[in-house]
Design brief:
This protein is mostly helical. It is built from 15 helices and no strands. Helix 9 packs antiparallel against helix 15.
Length: 392
């Protein structure tokens, strides 16, 4: 009875943490134009700052696994949330380019760390729960991502200075994280359950090899995460440009594609656990990948309404692929979930960060349609590879 209550509380707490992370990341988006104007930045300078945010996240992702193995995921989750929250007010008051670069790098460090820790914790809760929960967790992350800009925008529209709006969000992040701390698994319980789960499923203890990142299953899942995250990053950075330049949509409506993609993804992730339970992970990844590929083809080849439908299909198909990969990563024989999730997340976010830049280079050499074609090819590769594999 005690373990059932502990598990139920841990699941709810993890849901709050996913929501908190989505809220924290997305709250930065409405601040970007304000920062650009205040520091008088050109597009190249702003691009460099945004790159530092991503580099901060990627730099901390491998370190997150080490920290979780030493002190447990809940301490890492709360500490990194504090770093995100404490960085946020400085994002709107730092007066220099160098200062902003440092703060954005630290902000990215916090985001990357909490992202790995919450996914590792979510996988452990799911392993004990005995049924899929990762899709709904990522769905709540998406809900937080949709609400962040709305809350910041509402506060600013109500006459609140950007600094005070940032402080309000920062306090909310801290309150959410601290309130859930006691319900998250402590480090002793995590170590015990990880070993018990590994021995029960594979009959052997965790592998202590320092080069667990080179595990073939980790590298395969990492590649597939890289490909899927690349498609998400491409939609964020290139969808509006694609619609404006190639579909002749007016600039004020150029975000319609990404909005359609994001809403479809959030809805499907909230429904994802039930879908995975009724079908299976192979059907969801393979079928979802093919739906996503169809969506990209419609985006490229269709008229404007057909292209918007393509964005919806892409979000629908891709929504539950990454949560399944995280679930698979938490069950690799002999590898701690904290290690595997940090590795897979790092490779995935490398795709989200470097992918849009790669697409920009391809678009410059050839065309934006060819660049989007690469997205379709990679998603098709994910569907085929996962469909043909026997097990991870």
């Amino acid at each position: 009875m005690e373990i059932t209550r502990k598990l139920s509380n841990a699941k709810k707490a993890t849901q709050f943490i996913f929501f908190t992370c989505g809220l924290g990341i997305s709250s930065w988006a409405p601040m970007v134009p304000y920062v650009k104007d205040r520091l008088v930045l050109n597009e190249a300078d702003l691009g460099f700052l945004l790159l530092l945010l991503g580099l901060g996240a990627i730099a901390m992702m491998p370190v997150s696994g080490i920290l979780m193995n030493k002190i447990g995921s809940r301490k890492v989750i709360v500490a990194s949330t504090f770093l995100v929250a404490l960085s946020m007010p400085f994002l709107v008051i730092i007066p220099s380019f160098i200062g902003m670069a440092v703060v954005l790098f630290l902000f990215g460090c916090g985001i990357g760390t909490v992202d790995v820790a919450m996914n590792a914790h979510g996988v452990q809760v799911q392993n004990l729960y005995g049924r899929p929960i990762m899709s709904s967790l990522h769905g709540l992350f998406s809900v937080g991502g949709l609400l962040g800009p709305l809350i910041i925008g509402f506060l600013m529209k109500s006459g609140l200075e950007p600094l005070y709006a940032a402080i309000a969000i920062a306090l909310l992040l801290i309150i959410l994280a601290v309130s859930q701390y006691k319900y998250l698994f402590d480090s002793d319980f995590e170590k015990e359950t990880i070993n018990q789960f590994t021995q029960a499923t594979e009959g052997k203890s965790l592998n202590k090899n320092k080069f667990q990142w080179l595990n073939g299953s980790i590298l395969l899942l990492g590649f597939m995460c890289f490909s899927t995250f690349l498609s998400e990053g491409a939609m964020l950075d290139w969808s509006a440009v694609f619609l404006r330049d190639l579909k002749d949509i007016t600039p004020e409506f150029a975000g319609a594609g990404y909005a359609a993609f994001s809403i479809a993804m959030a809805v499907m992730r909230l429904l994802g656990d039930r879908i995975v339970s009724k079908l299976n992970s192979k059907t969801v990844v393979t079928g979802g990948g093919l739906v996503a590929v169809t969506g990209v083809i419609l985006i490229i080849a269709g008229s404007l309404p057909i292209s918007i439908l393509g964005f919806i299909l892409l979000g629908t198909g891709a929504a539950n692929i990454v949560p399944i990969f995280f679930s698979e990563g938490g069950k690799i024989p002999g590898v701690s979930p904290t290690t595997s999730i940090s590795a897979i997340t790092t490779m995935g976010y490398a795709g989200q960060l470097a992918g849009p830049a790669l697409l920009g280079y391809i678009a410059h050499l050839f065309s934006l349609q060819i660049a989007f074609g690469l997205i379709a090819f990679l998603l098709l590769a994910v569907a085929v590879i996962y469909g043909l594999k026997k097990n991870i």
